[in-house]
Design the sequence.
């Protein structure tokens, strides 16, 4: 084996249950190398995004909606260049993630 080359032994993700991951694909944790189990980088990124949205929603629930289909949390106002030009805040009528119209207040 060459020096400086990481071994590509199989690591597993606790979240998505994949078992064919390399050490480079895993979020670095204290016992990752010994246990060969942890959270892969995509799952960790998604987990962080969702928790950030939930914390923001808890601070201002009046400006937040949730989807009944995919359980996503998002702002009740649409964003984008067309809404910024007008200066008007446009209310959402559907989930930006799954496009469902079954949305409620947070």
Sequence:
């Amino acid at each position: 084996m060459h020096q400086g080359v990481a071994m590509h032994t199989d690591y597993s993700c606790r979240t998505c249950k994949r078992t064919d991951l390399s050490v480079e694909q895993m979020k670095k944790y204290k016992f990752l190398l010994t246990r060969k189990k942890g959270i892969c980088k995509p799952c960790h990124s998604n987990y962080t995004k969702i928790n950030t949205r939930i914390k923001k929603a808890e601070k201002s629930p009046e400006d937040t909606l949730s989807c009944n289909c995919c359980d996503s949390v998002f702002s009740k106002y649409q964003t984008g260049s067309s809404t910024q030009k007008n200066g008007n805040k446009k209310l959402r009528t559907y989930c930006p993630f799954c496009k469902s119209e079954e949305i409620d207040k947070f």
